[in-house]
Amino acid sequence: MAAMAKAVYLHIPFCEHICYYCDFNKVFLKNQPVDDYLDALEREIVLSLEQYPTDEIETIFIGGGTPTALDEVQMKRLMDMVERHLLPLATKNIEYSVEANPNFVSAEKLDTMKRGGVNRVSFGVQTFDDGGLERIGRTHRADDVFATVTEAAKRFDNISIDLMFGLPEQTLEQIERDLDLAFKLPIQHVSSYSLILEPHTVFAIQDRKGKLRLPGEDIEVAMYLKVMETLERRGLKQYEISNYSVEGRESRHNQVYWRNEEYYGFGAGAHSYLNGERRANVAPIPHYIKAEGLPVRSTTTLETFERMEEELFLGLRMRSGVSFETFETKYGVSMESVFGHVLSELKAKQLIETTDTHVRLTESGLPLANEAFAAFIGEARLNDVTT
Amino acid sequence: MNPYMNKQELENRQKKIRNFSIIAHIDHGKSTLADRILERTGALTAREMKEQTLDAMDLERERGITIKLNAVKLNYTAKDGVEYILHLIDTPGHVDFTYEVSRSLAACEGAVLVVDAAQGIEAQTLANVYLALDNDLEIIPVINKIDLPSADVERVRQEIEDVIGLDASDAVPASAKAGIGIEEILEQIVELVPPPTGDPSAPLQALIFDSYYDAYRGVVASIRVVNGSVKVGDKVQMMSTGKSFEVTDLGVSTPKPLSVKELNVGDVGTLSASIKTVGDVRVGDTITLAKNPSTEQLPGYRKMNPMVYCGLYPIDAAKYNDLREALERLQLSDAALEFEPETSQALGFGFRSGFLGMLHMEIIQERIEREFGIDLITTAPSVIYHVTTTSGDVIHVDNPSKMPEQQKVELIEEPYVKAAIMTPNDYVGSIMELCQKKRGSFIDMEYIDTTRVKITYDIPLSEIVYDFFDQLKSSTKGYASLDYDLIGYRPSRLVKMDILLNNELVDALSFIVHRDFAYERGKVIVEKLKALIPRMQFEVPIQAAVSTKIVARSTIKALRKNVLAKCYGGDISRKRKLLEKQKEGKKRMKMVGSVEVPQEAFMSVLSMDEE
Fold this sequence. Notes:
With 387 residues, chain A is of the alpha/beta class. Chain A has 2 domains: 7-257, Aldolase class I (TIM Barrel, Alpha-Beta Barrel), CATH 3.20.20.70; 303-387, Arc Repressor Mutant, subunit A. In chain A, 39% of the residues lie in helices and 22% in strands. Chain A is built from 14 helices and 17 strands. In chain A, helix 6 (172-182) links the parallel strand 7 and strand 8 (189-194). The longest helix of chain A is centred in the first third of the chain and has 18 residues, at 34-51. Chain A starts with 6 loop residues before the first strand and ends in an 11-residue tail after the last helix. The model of chain A has no long low-confidence stretch (mean pLDDT 94). With 611 residues, chain B is of the alpha+beta class. Chain B has 5 domains: 17-192, Rossmann fold (3-Layer(aba) Sandwich), CATH 3.40.50.300; 205-289, Translation factors (Elongation Factor Tu (Ef-tu), domain 3, Beta Barrel); 308-378, 2-Layer Sandwich (Alpha-Beta Plaits), CATH 3.30.70; 386-492, Alpha-Beta Plaits (2-Layer Sandwich), CATH 3.30.70; 495-604, Alpha-Beta Plaits (2-Layer Sandwich), CATH 3.30.70.2570. In chain B, strand 12 and strand 13 (257-260) form a beta hairpin. The radius of gyration of chain B is 27 Å and the shape is globular. The N and C termini of chain B lie far apart (74 Å). In chain B, 47% of the residues are buried. The model of chain B is unreliable at 51-57 and 59-69 (pLDDT under 50). Classes of the chains: A alpha/beta (387), B alpha+beta (611). At the A-B interface, strand 8, helix 8, strand 12, helix 11 and helix 14 of A face helix 14 of B.
């Protein structure tokens, strides 16, 4: 039986502005029933904790959308909600993060968050190039970032920023500049994501019309390597495909996903993994608000072989990789017996390497990680396993 | 009481028989009209109607074409109070099956021509109208879909008169979907289609216009009795082969199958005679009685030979035996399908298979993938070349990779066809241009009437089989029709083009090309392959070579980046789906040496539409 879930995700699906690349569940904030939404969110938290009790919450992550798009009062409500229902179940050293937009966080809002127990803030910076920000539909500018992050650093000692590469018209020089500027900020963590064109985004439409000038595969990989090399050299250690931090400030919340552990996901369109079931909440906000009982749209019970595959394709995202021992403890069989043939194929292709204790991506395997991940799909050999 | 009818009864009955087909372009409503006719004649109640009853196979319905023929017997009491026997004979609709269409039409005296009231006459319509006219059929034009907002009945009426030259003043405006005009169509069939003219007391002559395999009854022939009669227990003879069989069952479809004791002049039905081999029942052949045989075979019989050959290989080598079983099963009901084992260095064990044409090939390929669940690699289609070696031997080469080395070749001959293209005269220029491009030599052009032209070219079969028909349609807005006959072998300056991937020759990609086009085609193909073959972790050079001379080269760059450096949060299912899709893509590829080659690549060597 699965252990109690130790991680909580809360989704705030409102934005002041919709970015051209974003396909997360979100809506334009204006005229939205935010208070009704917060009511529904609270209902879900209470109901879910009744059905799936826990008393060892180690991480909370409030993401979006744009959590900081909430006004003062709404933010206070959200903080109170967490304080009332979640913090009493939390362990002492909880990691409590909020995603923030550089141009919507006043000192007051930061204070509210601080008082509410938040101890980590993650800013969606994306790039320090104002032209680039405009091209991707962001409304903040580089100056906002400096002002807000400096203000945040007065209250928080665990600050992360998101950066993006592979953006339209972005050059390798701009990436170098972005990285330089990042180090001028009082931060401990960087997430560096590449632009992925998703359907139903402004970019996907522009791309179909041939209007998107993307850097291309070769430049993109050079950017990725540049980010890895620069951040490592300057003291931010890469601990996952797109995450870097100073020692001890790795995002514990995200590691729950990659370690294939269970978590609550509250809010419209949020995803949970509880009792061996992956579930997705209803996404449209009015439906979420009106839902009776748990607002679940779909539930998938994973087969053992699927859990094993996920153990690998999630775990290999981390630089430390997947531990042979953990795998065997979890599934009662050795990784070698289940995936031996895949491991040797990928080793031959120099995509992965093994140590005495772990299997992990090679450095050259990082930009080709999906080649390695996909190789595990449908390949678990469970002959001698009773499922 | 004598179970059989006397001569007078037979003659009276014969006068009430009407045999007809429905001719229509895809989507112009043939199947729907057939459904309505079945409904109106009470053959099936609306509740029993499965939409579009005549097209039974999934594949047919999906492609909107009929592959397997059907004939239905219907009773219709006309306004004159007489109960008529109608036989509705369905026809397939593609150039690969022109011969079957012509035999089906030969079983009829009339044809209902369905034209879409919005779209007007299209190529397939015209081609089949010509076939119907060749068979002296009475044609009953119907303008269908008059309930569409874009319908223009008068324009289409005029078009039928101008393009086909039929009197369309009595053409029935109809909507098969809405059930409008069905009565009038049936009345016109009764009134205008002549009854069968055969002699009930003459020796039996029955035309085979279709056959299928039944697990219990063996090969079943669909027949039309032209002269005489046939009874259960009769010993019958196939006139093209001389083989004899005893009739075990005669049947009609109403469309529920119904056994009958005899089939007489004008009747359309099925004949079973414990026939084991599908090749013994040949479409177009004449069945007669062994005891009192007819001296003459009905006209128009042609033996169907495969024209096109390709290699079929299972992507998963372990499915080789499954593939053999699939082919054997399909062959039971498809006499034109041939196959024999072959081996490819690149693809392993598979079968060289012969088909009537490209559509036939695609249908078989799809049925194997769909009905038998075997993923296939199909190599580019080839014709049979006659090669005279320097040592004087003549060998037949149906697989380009088996072509002997150039220095050992004295002469290569390739099959030629006489292609007859029927077209409205507006398109003569573009058709001639196409035929020239396809190495055709002009033979003749004649005006059939003021608007219709018949153009005749001798063209290498290899140029016809691939995409000629498609190109012909696109360069004539779909109006031209094509019929072709093999006219024998002629010497050609041909060479084998080899393709090397990662410096290794891939035998399954070799093809035969005219020397003058070798350089150009080599260039196009390496670029095409470059676009089709996904990047590997290493650089893959692609070369096209004639003998050992490289005529074109290109390089697939190494895969640099395939990673989701994106925050998906807790949505793991989505991540899984992406990876599953990637993995699924790989399953549709074949490992050739160290390169993963997708299915389409093997066919690409023949598609020459250089953008």
